[in-house]
C-alpha cells in the first residue's frame, strides 16, 4: 500500500479514536468548551494570561468546568466556594498530585512536591517532623532568620545607595535559611558555587513560567523532538541534583548517628533504620529530590515575593511611609524586629498579606488529582483526573476584596485599623497539599521586609507613575519585571 495512504489512514484512525475517547469521557465530566481532536482546547486558552481565559470559561460553564489540555481532560475549579469544597471539605479525594510532565521528567515521581499516594504521605510526614526537630515554628528558626536579615542588611549597605538589581541578594537570604536547615551552614553572598546554584534555580522558575513551557506540558512529546528552553530546564535540574548529591556524600562521610546536624543527617539515619525494609522509600535518590524540592519551594517563592514587595512599595510610597512609621513606633531603630512585633503592627501585616494577594504568585496552583472516582457537585471525576484550582480567582474575588485589581493593604484591615483575617487568603494553597513551609515563609517575609525598611529608604530610578508592576510571566509563577532600586541608609 502507498505510504501516503497508510499515513492518512493512521491519522484518520488517531483522530477518530481521539473523538471517541473525548465524547465518552465528556458525558460524565463537568461541562466545558468543545475540544478539537488531539490538541483539545489549547488554542482557546491565552497562554500569556491563563487566568483571564479561566474567568471567561467560568462565566459560560460555571465554577466547575472541563478543559482538554492536549488529549487529556482537566477539571478546573474557579472561585472560593469550589476550591474550598474540593481542597478542604473533600481534602482526601483531591489530595493527589496532577500531571505536570516537565516535573515528572525531573523528579520521576519522587520528592515531597510531585509524589503521590503512600510515598507522598510518608515523605511529607517525615519532612514535617524533621523540620520541626530542626526548629521550624520555634524560636531557634526565628533566630536564624533574624541573623540572616542582618546579613542581608549588611550586603545592601555595600551598594552605598547606588542603583542595584535586587534579584540575587534577595534570593540569597531565604536560600541561606534553607541551607542552614538542610546543610547546617550558610554561604557567603559572594560564594561563586552558591551563586551559580542560585542562578540555576532562578532560571528554571523563570523558564517554567514562560508560555513555551505551558505548551510543552500540554504536549510532552515536544520535550524529545523540539529545540527550546525546556532543554535548559532539564540541564539546570541535573546541575542542581549534582550539587545536592555532593553535599549528601559529604554528610555520609561525616555522619554521627548520635548527633544529627541537619535535614540530610536525619534522613540518612532514617535510611539506616529502614535497611531491613526492601520497599523502603528512603533512598538516596529520593533524598536528593526532596532536598531539591525544599530548596525550590523555600527559596524562589519567598525571594520572588520579596522582590515584588519592594517594587510595589516603590510604586506606592504612601504605603511605605505608613509601614516605616509603624516600624519606628513599635520596633524603633535599636533592636531587630521579631515575630512578637507582628501583632502590634497591623498595617505592616496587612501590607504583606496584600502583597501576596495582589501578586498572585502561583495563579493556577500546582495541579491536583483525584485519588479515586469522585462525585463532586453531581459530576463523576474519574480517578487520576488532573484538577486545576484557580487560586487567582480566590485571591481576586471582588465579593471579598472591594477592588481586587488595586494594591491596597486596606483589604486586610477593619474600620478601626485592626488586622482582618480572610478565608480567601490562599497564596500557599490549602488543604492536604498546603505548602509545608508556609510558617517559615510568612516569618521570613515579615522579618526580612521589616528589617530592610527599618534600615533603608527605598528610592526608585523612575517616577511612581512610570513604574510597571505587571508580571512579565505568569504561567507557573507570576514574576515581576526586572528593576533597579537604591537602598538609602537611614
From TrEMBL:
Annotated InterPro entries: Cyt_P450, Cyt_P450_CS, Cyt_P450_E_grp-I, Cyt_P450_sf, Cytochrome_P450_fam2
Name of the protein in question: unspecific monooxygenase
One Gene Ontology cellular component: endoplasmic reticulum membrane
Family: Belongs to the cytochrome P450 family.
Names of required cofactors: heme
GO molecular function, one term: heme binding
Transmembrane domains' residue ranges: none
Entry-linked PROSITE patterns: CYTOCHROME_P450 (PS00086)
Compartments it resides in: Endoplasmic reticulum membrane; Microsome membrane
Taxonomic source organism: Peromyscus maniculatus bairdii
Matches recorded under Pfam families: p450
Residue numbers binding heme: 435
Gene for this chain: LOC102911082
Gene3D superfamilies listed in its UniProt record: Cytochrome P450
A Gene Ontology BP annotation from the UniProt entry: xenobiotic metabolic process
Key words, A-Z: Endoplasmic reticulum, Heme, Iron, Membrane, Metal-binding, Microsome, Monooxygenase, Oxidoreductase, Signal
Predominant location category: endoplasmic reticulum
Membrane topology of this protein: Peripheral membrane protein
Keyword flag Membrane: yes
Enzyme class label: oxidoreductase
Entries under CDD domains matching the protein: CYP2C-like
Signal sequence bounds: 1-25
EC number from the UniProt entry: 1.14.14.1
